[in-house]
Design brief:
The complex is a heterodimer of chains A (about 300) and B (about 325).
Chain A: H1 2-19, H2 21-64, H3 68-71, H4 86-93, H5 97-128, H6 132-146, H7 149-162, H8 169-193, H9 197-205, H10 210-221, H11 223-239, H12 242-247, H13 256-267, H14 272-307
Helix pairs in contact in A: 1-2, 2-14, 4-14, 5-8, 5-11, 5-13, 6-8, 8-11, 9-10, 11-14, 13-14
Chain B: H1 2-15, H2 28-57, E1 60-61, E2 70-71, H3 75-82, H4 84-114, H5 122-130, H6 137-147, H7 154-161, H8 178-202, H9 207-215, H10 220-249, H11 252-258, H12 269-279, H13 283-315
Antiparallel strand pairs in B: 1-2
Helix pairs in contact in B: 3-13, 4-8, 4-10, 6-11, 8-10, 8-11, 10-13, 12-13
Classes of the chains: A mainly alpha (about 300), B mainly alpha (about 325).
């Protein structure tokens, strides 16, 4: 179908090309013009899209280095009249932001490590062995990933209270680990499936234990998958709001997402600079992670994720 | 030598179904079970058990205080279909999801195509454009609450400068506008997902197809319609399927931006479910609604998967 259309297009062009040399020259310059026009349109669009995506973040940062008064003043100013980092100082001295930050760092880091270790083991089993129980686990994990979180909220809240883990960061850590396991499992399994089993066998023939073969042959080759799993798990745990706000109610156990909304409720609209500073701090680790994975984001990760 | 001979058959068996001889103490089956044990426990605790519990709850009237339910059969399900508040939330969820998916699909595709033209500054632009996807929902909510603030918000203020606008819109306070404001914000955050996936797929278009089309003198639009788009379609559909599920389930962005208000103008189904469970303390009704929502999303997913299979067949 494509070929036919393209073919008819070609024959019509051939006719015009045969007409006269002058026409050919005109045709060429017109094509050149059109191409240049298309190219500049593309540049304009690219700049537009970049601004569209970047401006809110720029605005977040600019607002965080204004004074409290200026950030809540009318009419609003575009650029800060006096650059100050007072909002960041206030954030850590006046509010409990430091506690929220520490809690989120603990929960996100531990759940990330747990997801990697646990899903690496399970992905290895799913990839290298064939038992009916394993296939069942693979299917359950996909199913688990599709359940609306809101459906699980009440039963999980009840479960956490019943086992005495209310207001215990361990509950959130376990929950986030469980929630991100299916993602890790599918990504890592597709990586391990791609690693030739012969390499492992060769290592084992050379006298390596299965664990040594796993560590020195499988893990190094799965590194891109491990990193993308780590980044996504950390990001998800770092940002989660629904469960964190329901399960962690004691002030010393609040994590960043609910913490920042508490701050909004406490300060009202009088301290936007501080809220923006808090938002900037929350985005920071994500920026770092993003820089780490950016290399593969387009080529590797997207493809890996879609293979799932 | 003997080692190698022993190993070969055992690994071959391992690739199929086996109860193969123990290598290094543990049998394959034991090892496999040990490896999946933590995953199985966590999934049972935090997915399977709560899912079954919610399904059970949906047949009970469960006062949150005593937590001792009385069996009411299908009454909760009947109530779901009769409650006007739930019906409004359902239609709001449809508007919310469809608007989000349409905008994200169009914009995500446009951005991916532009960022694949080998323009100067393409690498940096890709990074910047993909970034909002990683920004936590709370940070997103904060900066847009500020931007769209009724009085001091920069967007509200700039609107007053436009000559043809008399009163600036109350982006988050006007019940007729609030849902659309949240849609715009949500698209800002999640369009990059579509772009990431499509950009990845664009790297793999068979170049000889392009070459042939160029030799045939096909126009840019023809190349897109006959080569690029069919190549993108299966992956596009899967990306849209995931985004549809996540958007329909989304709680954080809507809630943090508008708390479901004003006047429940942004109360989609997930927010309504939470309100029923924790506000009205009607866990049975909340569970029935959640189960029905999950089934509805599953049905939609099924349609996507059929389209996906068809688009894969067309490629082959």
């Amino acid at each position: 179908m494509a070929g036919q259309k393209a073919l008819s297009q070609r024959s019509s062009q051939n006719e015009s090309a045969l007409d006269s040399p002058v026409r050919v020259g005109k045709e060429q310059s017109r094509q050149k013009l059109r191409r240049a026009l298309g190219r500049s349109t593309n540049y304009v669009l690219m700049v537009f899209f970049v601004l569209l995506m970047a401006l809110p973040l720029v605005w977040m940062f600019i607002s965080s280095i204004k004074t409290d008064q200026e950030s809540a003043a009318y009419p609003p100013t575009i650029l800060p009249q006096a650059v100050t980092f007072q909002a960041y100082v206030d954030l850590f001295t006046v509010s409990d932001f430091g506690t929220y930050l520490r809690n989120s760092l603990i929960v996100a880091t531990v759940s990330t490590i747990a997801v990697i270790v646990i899903s690496l083991c399970a992905a290895y089993a799913l990839s290298r062995f064939r038992f009916r129980l394993l296939r069942g686990l693979g299917e359950i994990s996909l199913f688990a990933y599709m359940i609306p979180p809101i459906l699980l909220l009440v039963p999980i809240a009840r479960l956490v209270v019943n086992v005495g883990l209310a207001n215990n960061l361990l509950a959130l850590t376990l929950l986030y680990t469980a929630m991100q396991l299916p993602f890790g499992l599918w990504i890592l399994r597709s990586y391990i499936n791609g690693i030739a089993i012969d390499l492992e066998q060769a290592a084992m023939v050379d006298g390596a234990t299965r664990f040594a073969a796993f560590r020195h042959v499988v893990v190094p080759q799965a590194i891109p998958g491990i990193i993308s799993t780590a980044v996504f798990t950390f990001n998800a745990s770092w940002s989660e709001y629904l469960f964190a706000s329901t399960l962690m109610t004691s002030p010393s156990k609040v994590t960043l997402s609910p913490g920042l909304t508490l701050l909004l409720d406490q300060t009202g609209v009088y301290s936007w600079a501080m809220l923006m500073a808090g938002s900037v701090v929350m985005v920071m680790p994500v920026i770092l992670l993003f820089i780490v994975i950016q290399k593969w984001l387009v080529s590797g990760l997207g493809a890996g994720a879609m293979k799932g | 030598m003997s080692d190698a001979n022993q190993n070969k058959p055992s690994t071959q068996q391992r690739r199929t179904t086996s109860e193969s001889p123990p290598s290094g103490g543990l049998s394959d089956r034991t090892l496999a079970m040990l490896l999946i044990f933590p995953t199985a426990i966590l999934l049972l605790m935090f997915s399977v058990y709560p899912f079954l519990q919610a399904a059970l709850d949906s047949f009970y009237r469960v006062p949150i205080a005593t937590r001792i339910g009385t069996f009411v059969g299908l009454q909760n399900y009947l109530e779901v279909f009769q409650d006007p508040g739930i019906r409004d939330a359902f239609f709001r969820s449809i508007v919310w999801t469809v608007a989000n998916i349409v905008i994200q699909a169009g914009l995500g595709l446009a951005i991916a195509l532009v960022l694949n033209q080998h323009l100067r500054g393409q690498g940096v632009s890709r990074g910047l454009v993909l970034f909002p996807y990683m920004v936590p929902a709370v940070s997103v909510a904060m900066v847009f609450r500020y931007t769209f603030n009724d009085i001091t918000g920069i967007a509200t203020f700039l609107m007053t400068k436009l000559p043809w606008i008399e009163d600036p819109p109350l982006f988050l306070a006007d019940p007729d506008i609030a849902l659309w404001t949240v849609v715009v914000v949500n698209c800002w955050k999640y369009t990059p997902f579509i772009t990431i996936v499509l950009l990845a797929r664009l790297q793999t278009v068979p170049l000889d197809l392009y070459e042939a089309a160029r030799l045939d003198g096909a126009s840019g639009w023809q190349v897109f319609r006959d080569i690029t788009f069919p190549w993108l379609r299966p992956v596009f559909l899967i990306a849209l399927l995931l985004r549809t599920i996540w958007t329909a389930n989304d709680f954080d962005v809507i809630y943090l931006l508008a708390y479901g208000g004003p006047l429940s103008a942004t109360t989609t189904l997930p927010l309504e479910i939470r309100r029923l469970a924790f506000g009205e303390q009607d866990i049975g009704l909340a569970s029935a609604l959640a189960i029905l929502m999950a089934l509805f999303i599953a049905a939609i997913s099924f349609i996507y998967l059929r389209l996906y299979r068809k688009s894969e067949e067309q490629l082959a």
